[in-house]
């Protein structure tokens, strides 16, 4: 990564660094973009967000930690600009308010209130108790793989595992799960939504979520929606109906997309590092450490939502002014040579691994523990069942561009005869 010409901190956009122009469609599909983000020095640089607005791009581990832990930085931009940004990207006006009432866009007291209520329901004990259920889902899906000549590990394993587990956790009825997976894929394109697809997906998911909430209010079950409804009914700091609906939608979306990417990228990366795969196959107890290293190395979540300064703040020697936006790149922070020894090397025995793959601070991913459980179960079960699994095509055919999710992962379950 090359440093842009020096500017006075906080004095406007100037010449924007093209390698950080998220508004350029070529950036999304450029396989070299990731290399520019992951390598070289890590100054705070100027760039553009997907809507064309200016951002400070932060890639160093120390600076990313500073941004994620800085209380004067907010998730929502000042004034009405966030609402206008969503409208400009094609999000219909009638659903903007609900779409804007999630933990991802809350700050301060509101964020603390909702996060505290959700944390009650998403306890570590509940997540750990899901392990046998995740194992059963994985084994059932692996049974289905055995009948396929060249299964696609995304369509046939990573995708269904992620959506089944999160839907079982929430209590989404089986009849809706395939539809929910399709909606989730559409919502994953929120940076550049297709209005013809995006609006029906959000409206459909919101409608079904409200129906699910009403059903659990009338007849509670042992699922997360029922527990959230109970929190909604009993706590003096109760969730609003919009907050409850948006929260359920975000949990499905985030839980599905992150785990899907972690499993797919994890399998692909291990197959390209046979020495590390052999270590894992010979010692499954390395599973949790291997998944943590894969989160660091593959970055299933590349970057966070933007943060906005409410007062002047120094980030990496740059004075960010009130109202200016900051984009942190988790993937680059997790390859910082000042923190990680040989950062470009996959090492599933790595002991010192302070990765930021799930963020940190107030907005640390609520579902991180579940994602790690799913990743470990998925990988150890897959290679335990099919130890000779191999890619069915050349890696160059499926190596994903940096900001795009991997779309296919064809494999052979046994060696070619």
UniProtKB/TrEMBL annotation:
Molecular function terms from GO: cholest-4-en-3-one 26-monooxygenase activity; heme binding; iron ion binding; steroid hydroxylase activity
Q: Sorted alphabetically, which keywords does the UniProt record give?
A: Heme, Iron, Metal-binding, Monooxygenase, Oxidoreductase, Plasmid
Q: Name one GO biological process term.
A: cholesterol catabolic process
Q: What domain of life does the UniProt record list for this protein's source?
A: Bacteria
**Which InterPro entries does the annotation name?**
Cyt_P450, Cyt_P450_B, Cyt_P450_CS, Cyt_P450_sf
PROSITE patterns, A to Z: CYTOCHROME_P450
Entry keyword annotation includes Ion transport: no
Basic and acidic residues composition-biased segments = 23-32
Region (Disordered) spans which residues?
1-32
What does the sequence similarity comment in the record state about its family?
A: Belongs to the cytochrome P450 family.
Name recorded for this polypeptide: Cytochrome P450
Q: Can you name the source organism?
A: Streptomyces globosus
């Amino acid at each position: 990564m090359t440093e842009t010409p020096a500017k006075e901190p906080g004095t406007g956009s100037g010449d924007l660094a093209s390698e950080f122009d998220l508004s350029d469609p070529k950036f999304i599909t450029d396989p070299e973009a990731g290399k520019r983000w992951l390598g070289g020095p890590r100054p705070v640089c100027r760039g553009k967000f997907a809507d064309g607005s200016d951002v400070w791009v932060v890639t160093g581990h120390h600076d990313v930690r500073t941004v994620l832990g800085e209380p004067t930085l907010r998730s929502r931009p000042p004034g009405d600009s966030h609402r206008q940004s969503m409208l400009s990207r094609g999000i219909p006006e009638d659903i903007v308010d609900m779409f804007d009432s999630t933990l991802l866009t809350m700050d301060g007291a509101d964020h603390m209130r909702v996060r505290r209520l959700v944390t009650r329901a998403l306890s570590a004990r509940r997540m750990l108790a899901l392990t046998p259920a995740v194992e059963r889902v994985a084994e059932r899906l692996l049974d289905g793989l055995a009948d396929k000549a060249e299964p696609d590990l995304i369509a046939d394993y990573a995708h269904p595992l992620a959506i089944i587990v999160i839907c079982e956790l929430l209590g989404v009825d089986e009849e809706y799960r395939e539809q929910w997976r399709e909606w989730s894929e559409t919502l994953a394109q929120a940076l550049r939504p297709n209005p013809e697809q995006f609006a029906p997906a959000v409206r459909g998911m919101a409608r079904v979520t409200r129906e699910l909430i009403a059903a659990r209010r009338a007849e509670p079950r042992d699922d997360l929606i029922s527990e959230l409804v109970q929190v909604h009914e009993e706590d003096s700091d109760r969730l609003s109906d919009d907050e409850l609906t948006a929260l359920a939608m975000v949990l499905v979306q985030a839980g599905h997309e992150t785990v899907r990417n972690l499993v797919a990228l994890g399998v692909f990366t291990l197959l390209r590092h046979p020495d590390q795969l052999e270590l894992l196959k010979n010692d499954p107890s390395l599973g949790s450490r291997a998944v943590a290293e894969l989160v660091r190395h593959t970055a299933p979540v590349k970057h966070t939502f933007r943060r906005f300064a409410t007062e002047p703040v120094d980030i990496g020697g740059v004075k960010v002014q009130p109202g200016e936006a900051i984009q942190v790149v988790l993937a680059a922070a997790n390859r910082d040579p000042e923190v990680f020894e040989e950062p470009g090397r996959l090492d599933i025995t790595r002991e010192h691994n302070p990765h930021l793959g799930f963020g940190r601070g107030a907005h640390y991913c609520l579902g991180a523990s579940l994602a790690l459980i799913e990743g470990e179960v998925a990988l150890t079960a897959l290679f335990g069942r099919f130890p000779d699994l191999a890619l069915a095509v050349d890696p160059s055919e499926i190596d994903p561009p940096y900001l795009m999710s991997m779309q296919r992962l064809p494999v052979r379950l046994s060696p070619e005869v």
